[in-house]
């Protein structure tokens, strides 16, 4: 009997409910594994139907079609004399489970259901599946007649068991079971299981790749054995990007791995291992052998098959390799680019349309599309026939061969600078320079005519002409004038996206790309239904800080020198009139907080699960070097007011590439109300109480916070979120001017107008009482909160 086995793990770019395509990719992976000499092939989680079927898992059609696809795989001659497992949902006794189905030579061996389901982050597995709770227990599963006809079987074991071959023992974990404290690989390894197999659907987040690698290495270092990890890759119909990295590990070292980001639909990774290396490694850990001696046994499904062969002495065993991780800048350059490619080719559209303003955000999107063009050209040059077929369909040219990223970008990306009388010469110049360097099909338009036409309709009805604040208008007038510019750009973007290919004598339409970042979404610093509204957004899950770093990387990587100038320019929306041709507004001044502070707020709110009070308690220590507790309190309150007022925008947020752990995406990742009491009265009162104790020197905590420095400007809000007194005062938050309009002594409420020098979306709120907010048209009783 031999001692060396060659095993294969697979990275597949599956698509939810694409049963034909999923079947072909599975068969291709089995074929490639066999050609590489593997006797055992494992694949990703739910690979037959695709991971992101979501509520389609409720449909009996989905379960039926999975069995039909499994039958096609079972009877395929490609699978002869190879042990294979695939992932699919299976209903057992009226309960649907997420399963691995194991078969050999047209015989089903085991259906192994998932023991631990994942419900954090973007996962909602318990909505559709149920965890198998009968550990080390098997039941009979009655096979569908379509399967029995070909296999001659009526029953197959269903449950928590392992496969015993002539030469080794194989056990299964499924995705979350590796992350769970009660991981199945520990008791299985103590029971003599030597190959641990995990089919997973793990998605990409910035700086996350090391997590699964550390888990796999730790599992095999502690328990010994071989770990086979297969993951999906690509966009299968949702906001996440499954990030590959399928790998094979042995005794704490990685033997082989697949790419994290690639356009390749099927990637098979193999490794040859010596089973005796597992046995000697485990036997040397004496505390482990003692635990194994008393470990309860798993049910074994014994098969008359060996993974090794007698003449295997000439087979070299694989040695451990070093895992080289991508930097965050590289992850931004590659991940969203691959996600965009999957979306584009599967949507049937002819390219992208991007309003290019010359700022960091839209320039980041343009650079990511350019990165995608590089990936396409490189894949075609390497002989990827699927990529070549896809790009020919997109450009509607059956003979087209992309040879240059700039030339391909000209076909796939249309950019447009939508200028107005408020736009500067500098931003127009930067947009044009970037478009030229990446090769996009670029146009310049002026939206002033459209703005005047829309305002003319209002004037014809009201007899009033709204003015900017800098020209004597009120805050309401100024914000309305800014928002109409932003919203008209969205309307024009969709017009151009539908007709630009027609104008260029090509069929099809273009996907509109959004360019708002995760920080702006969190703060609500965007106009509802402006250019943040689009078909998809590749940077909606990425912070401003990371985008600036990415542009620095892209400048060198893609030879785009204009990006240096774009990064160094102050971020601005250019919606207010210029002063002597110069900008009069910047994003950070308008928001009342820096992007660095916003990044910190976001992480504390989502990752650390902090409400206003907990966030204040943490930040008085984190920021004690440059902020007094009074300043911290004011900043925290300002953030939560803005967040609460603008949360409704998340309900219509453009589907975005998920990359950041503090994303406010309302669809799946961040479930919260979109109607808040914006005063946060109880929470802010708790901050004020703690601040009073700190100021009085009565705080008995371990960390002493200095309160000696003066606050730069009066605190603009009390615990009810309202100004502390009458008159005009300048808040210590830049760009915020508070004007008290009226005090109602009967209601005990100060009614005020808080005027931001710029806010893209605004709310006028009427204070009816201490706890009630409603709309009003009476300017004497308005609270303007941005």
Automatic annotation (TrEMBL):
Family the entry assigns: In the C-terminal section; belongs to the NAD synthetase family.
Lineage top rank: taxon: Eukaryota
Polar residues biased stretches: 717-732
GO cellular component: cytoplasm
Reactions this protein catalyses: deamido-NAD(+) + L-glutamine + ATP + H2O = L-glutamate + AMP + diphosphate + NAD(+) + H(+)
Keyword ATP-binding among UniProt keywords: yes
Pathway(s) it belongs to: Cofactor biosynthesis; NAD(+) biosynthesis; NAD(+) from deamido-NAD(+) (L-Gln route): step 1/1
GO molecular function: ATP binding; glutaminase activity; NAD+ synthase (glutamine-hydrolyzing) activity
Enzyme class: ligase
Organism encoding this protein: Timema californicum
Protein name: Glutamine-dependent NAD(+) synthetase
Record's keyword terms, sorted: ATP-binding, Ligase, NAD, Nucleotide-binding
E.C. numbers: 6.3.5.1
All residue ranges annotated as the CN hydrolase domain in the record: 5-275
GO biological process: NAD+ biosynthetic process
SUPFAM superfamilies: Adenine nucleotide alpha hydrolases-like, Carbon-nitrogen hydrolase
Region entry Disordered, spans: 696-734
